[in-house]
Amino acid sequence: MTADRGVALVASAGEQRRAVARYLAGAGYHVHECDELAVAGTFTAVIWLAGDTARDLGPRARAWLRSTPPYRVVIVTARPATLRALVASHPDRLFVLPAPTFAWDLLDALRATPAPRPRGA
After folding, report:
1. Is residue 57 part of a domain?
2. Residue 89 belongs to a domain with what CATH number?
3. Tens digits of per-residue pLDDT, 73-104?
4. Among 32, 33, 56, 113, which residue is least crowded by beta carbons within 10 Å?
């Protein structure tokens, strides 16, 4: 993560979003809570607590990954297998966690270091 540590937390308004935002803020992140996020380029990371009925997992994740930043996109979904191919093509930037998950799992995903690259890659 870069020095500014700005995180967009995309989720329906409610206690879950507020609790996750408080947890991340306590860990030193500047959290922007929102229901929707069209452009992710102003944040170093995006966390999306996707609802069970979210049908645009792939297209929305691809749009955020095209932005530079965010350097990290974390998606919590009841259907993580639908994003398997996208995770394989962006293993250092896209983390998909199965719902439900704990706030500390989100923090671990934000702090994860990129996998080592083979020499010459």
Report:
1. yes
2. 3.40.50.2300
3. 999 999 999 999 999 999 989 999 999 999 99
4. 113
- Domain membership flag for residue 119: no
As for how many domains the chain has, the answer is 1
The full DSSP string for the chain is --TT-EEEEE--SSHHHHHHHHHHHHTT-EEEEES--S--TT-SEEEEE--TT---HHHHHHHHHHSS--SEEEEEES-GGGGHHHHHH-TTTEEEEESS--HHHHHHHHHPPPPPPPTT-
The length of the chain in residues reads 121
- Asked if the structure places residue 117 within a domain, the reply is no
Model-wide pTM > 0.70: yes
